[in-house]
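User: What would this chain look like folded?
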Amino acid sequence: MPTPDATTLDTTTIPQARIPDLTLGFLADGYDFVRERCAHYGSDAFEARLMGRRTVFCFGEEAARMFYEPGRFTRRDALPSFALKLLQDQGSVATLDGEEHRARKALFMSFMTPERLDAIADAAASRLRARLADYPTGAPLHGVLRDVLCRAACDWVGVPVSEADEQGLVEEAGAMIDEAGSVGPANWIARLRRHHSEEMLSSLARDAREGRVALPEGSPAAAFVSWRGPDGAPLDEAVIAVELLNLIRPIVAIARFETFAALALVENPQSRAAIRGHEEGFLTRFVEEVRRTAPFFPVIAGRVRTPFAWRGRDFEEGELVVLDLYGTDRDPRLWRDADRFDPARFRGRMPNAYDLVPQGGGDPFSGHRCAGEWLTVAVMESMTAVLAREAEWTVPEQDLSVDLREIPALPKSGLVLSDVRLGHG
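Assistant: Here's the prediction, encoded as structure tokens.
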């Protein structure tokens, strides 16, 4: 199927798909589904049925501005249950609207201060150094990064867990991420594993409230246990568990971005040289280009909360809209040579809230944009600096292909490293 051309896309209408339901096509085509269908219909938006529901699919900056208009959409009942149960679960901030959402989101954003971001970035870098100094022979980097980040996340969130429980959390968080795009037994098993993690964290919240466990002062865990909502009521312990896991799991997911960062260092040795040479601003530009190009979460869905009109179409309450995040980040109208890896494109260019959207768009304070986006950049910068400046490693022959039909995607081998050693500085 063709890919979109900047000069040929209609931006005034929303054509209708001629196929009755595109659910199977979405599951089969993965990350390129929306862009390829848009090219086929000659527009950057089209209407079809997804799982039997009328759905508008779209990509690009204008579509992102439409989608992230405050109060226009709700995430409630937008994601299919097989994804919601793994990525957010009931009662999470992502499922709230209005004042409830603003108040809970403010709590999340209170953890994103420069001091707190420095703390998680330093913890991730320190744990990565320790693992690189004793790197498991033949181990895929992605698995090592996942382990490093889960342990750093537990420290940062303030979750005191035993070594055994921490290893279980690594595996359970990993399953939530790996199976979020799947249906069937693998997804069901991952849900059971998430339930086990939530039970552990709910028990921790209960023990903290009853004085059996002292949580680190100023930690997110302590904040959730003591926090009260707009109605003055404390959070249910089950909801605290959900939200703590919704801090830990996304930090673990940074392992995917960082694996693609390491792959970019391999494929672009000039970038590694620039980072080693401390070229001013280059590390940040490199990380942003990794986030732009890496296949992370493909789309985001919303259900119309407040009726509105766009492109000559009336959107009614309850209708579904799917915004293509991956396609927007590779939109040739926004990014010259969009499929080429080029950190220089960010020299002198500050992305706005709607053109670089690997973790969602809009205002992180008032909307549903990922609260941890600044954290992601900080952690990626610290870990990439360690890999590029402080470590030596080689990449043996392996399958580094990326299948964009798999959600979430990774290099096939997970990026196996060999001859790993620290000491370059």
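The radius of gyration is 21 Å. If you want, I can go into more detail on any region.
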